[in-house]
Design a protein that fits this description.
Protein name: Kinase
Distance between the termini: 15 Å
Largest sheet: 8 strands, mixed
InterPro entries: PfkB_dom, Ribokinase-like
Number of strands: 14
Pfam families: PfkB
Strand order of the largest sheet: 4-1-9-10-11-12-13-14
Oligomer: single chain
GO molecular function, one term: kinase activity
Order of helices and strands: EEEHEEHEEEHEHEEHHEEEHH
Keywords: Kinase, Transferase
Shape: globular
Radius of gyration: 18 Å
């Protein structure tokens, strides 16, 4: 863990917060199987995961999300607050249930998942209302699951004009909506190679070419992963760094991308050189995958 020097400024995490319910099957899963394993319920969602991991790294983090007006939402807020996340601007949506994410994983990784995001969908651009005033934030982390209208509105907010906007990729199918953010001068994209290819509209052979293509498209910087193959960091000055992830099996894959992004942001805030920051982030992600490391600790 990196201990980032205390600061009055913080990272604002905008996007999903919900309950994760993850079933870890002990054996390879086949459609229709009923397998032994274990089921874990824990706080989740891209924005909340990132806020929790940033706090784990010693970085002040504030959550901006939409929850239902139910007991599940109140419990989620209480847990996030107890773990040090600032939750003063969280929206509660009347008549909506707090979101949830249900996934099945086996020794090979993710088998299937379903996400209930009704509260976030109902909030729409109102999610950003608390950001209309002045905010003292060093970086903003945005969940790439948000729809294009919300992403575009976030990029145009005067309160975020001077902040670095770090975007977490959601999936290849949702990558095109990130074009709504390309006009921001301090945009940093955190994507996998498939997401980068869809955003760029081109086949990209590896993370090196993908990171360079994202900067050519208008990003100020980009971190691109490619599974077990080397990951790459590039910026608009032409800097390019690569590092290979540690070799491992994949007993826990849910939240791995969030773990990597939070560790990389913390490393950069601490002033690590680009290659060292990338290596640090990959090592912390390997811990998460290998051991089921969690940020949800007192």
């Amino acid at each position: 863990m990196i201990n980032v020097a205390p600061s009055g400024r913080r990272v604002l995490c905008i996007g999903a917060a919900h309950w994760d319910v993850i079933g870890h099957a002990a054996d390879p899963a086949v459609r229709g199987d009923d397998l032994p394993g274990r089921v874990v319920r824990a706080p989740g969602g891209v924005a909340l995961n990132l806020a929790l991991w940033l706090r784990h790294e010693g970085v002040a983090a504030e959550l901006l999300t939409a929850l239902g007006d139910d007991a599940a939402g109140q419990e989620l807020l209480a847990q996030a607050s107890a773990l040090g996340v600032i939750c003063d601007r969280v929206l509660r949506i009347p008549g909506q249930a707090t979101g949830s994410y249900v996934a099945i994983e086996d020794p090979s990784g993710l088998v299937a998942a379903v996400a209930d995001t009704a509260a976030m969908d109902a909030a729409g651009v109102a999610l950003l209302e608390p950001v209309r005033g002045d905010l003292d934030v060093r970086r903003v982390v945005i969940d790439g699951n948000l729809d294009a209208a919300v992403l575009g509105a976030a990029a145009a907010l005067p309160a975020l004009a001077d902040a670095e906007i770090c975007v977490a990729g959601a999936s290849p199918a949702k990558a095109a909506r990130l074009r709504a953010l390309l006009g921001h001068p301090r945009l940093v994209l955190h994507l996998n190679r498939a997401e980068a290819a869809n955003l760029c509209g081109a086949e990209l052979a590896d993370s090196h070419s993908a990171a360079g293509a994202l900067c050519a498209l208008g990003a100020a910087a980009a971190l691109v992963t490619d599974g077990a193959r080397p990951a790459a960091w590039a910026d608009a000055t032409g800097l390019m760094e690569e590092a290979t992830p540690p070799a491992l099996r994949a007993p826990r894959v849910t939240g791995a991308g969030d773990r990597l992004m939070a560790a990389h942001i913390a490393a950069r805030l601490q002033g690590l050189e680009p290659r060292a920051a990338l290596t640090y982030a990959l090592d912390r992600t390997a811990d998460h995958i290998r051991h089921g490391e969690t940020a949800c600790i007192p």
